[in-house]
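Dissemination and training. As part of the outreach component of the grant, students in the summer workshop were shown how a complex can be specified as a set of sequence lines and then modelled as a single object. The example used during the hands-on session is reproduced here so that future cohorts can follow it. Participants entered these lines:
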Amino acid sequence: MKDILIRHNLALKQQVGILLETAEGKDAPRELELYKQWLLSFLGQVNTRVDKNLRKLDKNVASILPDILSYTEEVSQQVRLLSTYYIPPIHRSIHSDKIALKLLKWLHERHDKSVSIPFAISDGAFGIYPTVPTLYYLPATDQKGLLYLPLFFHEFGHLLFKLHKPEMDDLVREIQLGIEEFNRPTYVHNDDRSAEEFKNVEAIVNTWYKWVQEFFCDAVGLVIGGESYLYAFSGYCQMGGRDEFHQRKEDLNGRTHPVTLIRVHLLVKRARKLGYHAAADRVENEWRQLQRQYIRTPEYFGYYADEYEPIVEENLDYMLEEASPYLFDASEDSPVHILNDAWGEFLERPQKFSEWEREAIRAYLG
Amino acid sequence: MEAKWLSVQSFFRNQSLISAINALCIHWKLQMEGIEDEEDEEDVKEARILIRDFLVEFDRQVANYERSMFQILPGVDPRQFALVKRFVSAKRRKDFSSVTFKDKPGKVIELLDNENPNNLEPLVSALTELRILLEEHNQADVQNLVPEI
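and obtained this result:
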């Protein structure tokens, strides 16, 4: 066992060396400086762990071999994860990343808890790894444009949730308990039917932990991005087909995201509360037209009901109060303006949009 | 397959716990062998706090789950919830041999708070079982994040 562990630790040392060389050798944009510093420091810590493993192995104490094995497995997984997810943002870094990086830097700097969190972007479907450091993903087609950047505001919501997790979990709990109460069987018998009902309540309530977080992130997106978020979200999901409107009962159990039609419904309601009436009417009307192509009346099998809305909306309001995201203000200078202008242009003059967008990006990057 | 943002959070959380267990187990085992090792003193101090905090919360979650009529744990993220369920089903299958851990996770806290040479062996065996539980649980996150070849 000792020999195996020595061999693996020496191999890990070599791999960490390669990762360090890769990270150090690449000139990263200014916005990635904090991330690069984190990466180098973390690789240094991994290297120290490997050295400690080797020194512990040198002590020749058989009883600690299982613990060093566990440590070695841990480092192996870390190296794999670094190599798969955390090195590419530096390795792949290209000039056009500047658009998204500048926006994210502004976003992180607007919030006390995120200002010192290193972040980077990488290729993939819109998403986030809300850890320290934070990784944001965006598709290659959207890296050079403005229209779908507001979706980052939703992803940033996941980070805010994580940064306020104890308070957020308490509020999620309130919503889950409300939904549980609503679905609680009136009579409980010791039979298969009751067991089935119990299982159904369990599935619905457990699924809602993830759904609350998505609804919260949508609300964050709207608060930060204003109308641009509503249009971006709607535009991004509209051509997703039948799945955006209807899911089978078995597919709803444990589903990571709520059915898009419900998200649009809640977003439109919140948009009206924030005064974005024209955008809300437009988006609602478009989704109604599309809905008619797929379903007559939505069926959510208890995973959603109008009766949930008061408790959901009330607690989402508390969650927003707790996280306190930047509130878009049309009179203030911020990059959110350019995103709202982009959607205004795109909806009014789609044929001339590319030209407008090129100029707007040039002005934005200075 | 769980959402990747949940898996990555769960992965880092569990790794820090596994790492803390390793630091404590090595420290106690070397102590039992009569070997001085001051290299990880700071790590051991932090590890004790981390494991204690985790056990306090985990104990509460296990108790709430065992009491729950609908098998739910409101306000607990799905990966942590899965860990609680994993512990409860292993306990029901009588998978644990460590006296302290198989009863309830909170029992380990009493030993941690009252660390003395007589307690080291039961502490090592309890934390070794906790580590197995965490490593098995972590495997699902690793597979979700870095698929098998």
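The beta strands of chain A are 119-123, 127-129, 134-138. Students were then asked to discuss how this feature might be tested experimentally.
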